[in-house]
Design a protein that fits this description.
The protein has 149 residues and is α/β, with parallel strands linked by helices. It has 7 helices and 5 strands. Strand 4, helix 7 and strand 5 form a beta-alpha-beta unit.
């Protein structure tokens, strides 16, 4: 697998979509105290990242009525990307290709694959409470912060 020359292991946190949704909706009680502290520290350093694939996923979930937003999805995304410390990262061809060639049995969800590939290729830590992602990342040497309570 390919790593970016711009990686800064452990310094940047890539948010899984549900973590970003919980941050924006102020439901962080779902996140462990250790993960909350890491998120706050990273926000202060402006080193939280949200992938464009998470914007896509929020749109899909909203359209399917699986995500109860209190405003139009475009307004929610704008607000979510304005969260202090958060910076959006685009999709790129290297990560797109890597998401299709992850070893062994990666999660089947395409968004999860993109996030795993982005975290790996940039040396970022993926923050998630998804047990499948945590287990897979651990086996593959992809940095992950377990946010489960």
């Amino acid at each position: 697998m390919i790593r970016s020359p711009h990686s800064n292991p452990g310094e940047t946190l890539l948010l899984d979509t549900h973590i970003w949704v919980w941050m924006v909706s102020n439901t962080m009680e779902r996140v462990s105290a250790v993960a909350r502290a890491a998120l706050e520290e990273s926000a202060a350093k402006r080193s939280l990242r949200v992938s464009a694939i998470s914007v896509w996923e929020v749109g899909v979930l909203s359209r399917k009525k699986r995500l109860g937003l209190t405003m139009h999805v475009a307004a929610w995304v704008e607000r979510g990307l304005a969260t202090p410390g958060v910076q959006q990262v685009p999709l790129d061809s290297t990560v797109a290709l890597l998401s299709t060639t992850l070893p062994e049995e990666p999660p089947s969800d395409p968004a999860d694959r993109f996030l795993l590939a982005k975290a790996y290729s940039y040396g970022w830590t993926l923050v998630t409470s998804d047990a499948r992602i945590i287990q897979y990342a651990g086996k593959q040497g992809i940095a992950v912060l377990d946010a489960r309570n």
